[in-house]
Model the fold of this input.
Amino acid sequence: MASKYQHQKIEKKWQDKWEEQKLYTADDTSTKPKEYILDMFPYPSGAGLHAGHVEGYAATDIAARFARMNGKEVLHPMGWDAFGLPAENYAIKTKTPPRESTDKAIDNFRRQIKSLGLSYDWSREIGTHTPEYYRWTQWFFLLLYKQKLAYRAKAKVNWCPKDQTVLANEQVVEGVCERCGTLVEQKDLHQWFFQITRFAEELLDGLTTIDWPESTKSAQKNWIGKSEGAEIDFAIAGSDISVKVFTTRPDTLFGATYLVLAPEHPLVEKILETLENAEEVRVYVDAAKHKTDLERAVDSKEKTGVELKGVSVINPANNDEIPVYVADYVLGSYGTGAIMAVPAHDERDFEFAQKFGLRSINVIDPYPIGPCVSVIQKIGGESDITKELKVQSELILKGERVWTGAGNLRNSGKFIGMEKETAKNAITKSVGGKTVTRYRLRDWLVSRQRYWGVPIPIIYCEQCGTVPVPEEDLPVMLPEDVDFMPTGESPLAHSKSFHDVTCPTCGKPARRESDTMDTFVCSSWYYFRFADPYNENAFASPEKIKKWLPVDLYVGGAEHSVLHLLYARFITKVLHSSGLISFNEPFKKLRHQGMILAQDGRKMSKSLGNVVNPDDVVSEYGADTLRLYEMFMGPLDVQKPWNTKNISGSHRFVERAYRLLGQRTDKEPQEFAKVLEETIKKVGEDIKLLKFNTAISQLMICLNAAQDGISQKSLEVFTLLLAPFAPHLAEEMWCELGHNESVHKATWPTYDDNTISQGAVTVAVQINGKRRGEVVISSDTDETTALESARAIPSIATILSQGEPKRVIYVPGRIINIVV
Ligand code: ANZ
Ligand code: ZN
Done:
């Protein structure tokens, strides 16, 4: 046994051994219960691994190792989300083909990830940019096409008129092209869509069945944006045309004092020439083209609009003639692209009405303020609060304040006095309206006018029209000899060999679709492929899918709360409804890792020069130290700043644990048994809850308690507990303890509740008299050991790393107060 722990040598040694022994290969034929533990596979950027990657990967690795030690057959794979815009941009800048730069980045990522000693089954590695993989991405496209879930339609895209190219949303910076600064336009082009909206209801329903963070579920719910409302027709005065509006508040129809059309509403174009202010309207409509829906929908923005002079519509409830406006706060893509505006009960309408001097009629008697007013009148007395209430409610009743709450109808003809919810149906019916359910969710636009992506497997033939590439002709290979510099079209359109084909149906010359797919298509199904990565006859066989899926634990960044996680659920639902799989949610349990900030509390970024490179930490302190440090920083899901100073704490822990080998004794102190049992219990429970920071605290307590000597048997147990967190260290110790088989194939220890309940006490830990936490120690623990135990609390460790305590006041069994 070497006296000092040589992490470089030891970590490399075990990594090689593990690989040689195929220790982490998931066995398809195993009869043990399975556990599928998955990380969001990374985009292999040229910048290499980020401290945030390490956090998520270390977390799932602990869960995977723990599951194996608890008798599970674990599938824990890794791969590369390799297509995408950054590689293409890099190619344009440096003239390196995207495949070259991507493969290089992958090699670097793989090297970095391997240096962390993570227990991935590398035999299942996949890359979305390989023909073996993207063949099946194309197959998925065809599956959707056959079910009419993939279709082509015109859609608005960001268009740079100077570069003659389509821009992704992230390439539009404050309305101008990121590359040349030209004002970006919204242009109508033919695009491919996946009809995710058909699954809106199922995507909502499924949320109640999965163990995901509430914030993520609610983000998806809002994105889907279900609302129940009504469509009501407003006749144009003096014509037989009418405008259909969508409203969630038909109960306020009597308060509708004007109507608003979205700038892209077809009626605007149709009646433009007949308007008294045609020119003014045209200028406004053109200006709106430069804004994205997101910019237009911002609530804080001042409302703009133009009246359509010369037209008016009839409010069908009371036959009032009301004016019509075009305004960009109404979106063309939602509802019917037209609204009835009710300033008295809608904030946006109120703001607009104020600006344009439009009427506001209150039609809902504010409840509970309404009854309050009558109570005030009855009592006669007026406190400040009741006075204020009265002022407010009078303003509301005059339509000078918005009331969005409950109440009964006023100013509403025969519906006066009716409760608002009841009135919704009654009024809709009385004006011949239709009750409808609307979703904010839009179909998924999947085509990209880009080179570095999966070719869409479609052929256009003059005779046969749109022809899907026959399955047996897949993959449609991405040509490697193209000029990927930007022009007006997809770069693939310029590759003659790619572009000119014969029609698979009639054999005549035809043209291949030159767009590629959104990379989110690649990542919407990759978790299936890990179950059966070499299958040449299917994206994965039914048996392997049944064996491994769904994913039991999925960990990744919260930035994927919507797009990726929604698309993956959609694809799973498509497979389910096609009868190809038996489950309808891909990820049973999801957790996000919190962002790791730089030491200065800001986001790590190259330009700020505050990025931590995991390679540096691994070479100086070792992978185990880095893993322990990141897991000890705080709860997994919270944001936390890097602190280089604290790394040495984790490093000391590794060295002290290793030294225990030399502290073995036959006469282990009696109390230690209890601490060890407590540690088995606590660490196991915490891992199940992914509370790794507190699990490590407990390991530190146990290590401190072992300083007075530890038996061979106890040290074996301690080593087993250490294994998921510091796999190299534990393996080395296990070997030194005389075992031939890997610690990672050993069984997780059990504990005896009886031992634990003997004499354990909770001691409060204070810093300068302020409570900072507690430790569970035996009632006869001495001061030095108690202080060491207190150091295992992260906040205390941080404080004590700045200087040793001035004084310690210790009352055994009660309190330890540290004066600094
Ligand atoms: C009249 C009304 C009165 C409305 C009232 C609200 C409150 P959600 O709940 O998000 O579905 N709306 C309809 N289509 C719109 C569009 N294309 N662009 C912008 N706004 C639109 O919102 C539905 C409400 O948003 C609808 O109900 C409509 O305003 C507006 F006291 O109609 B409401
Ligand atoms: Zn044809």
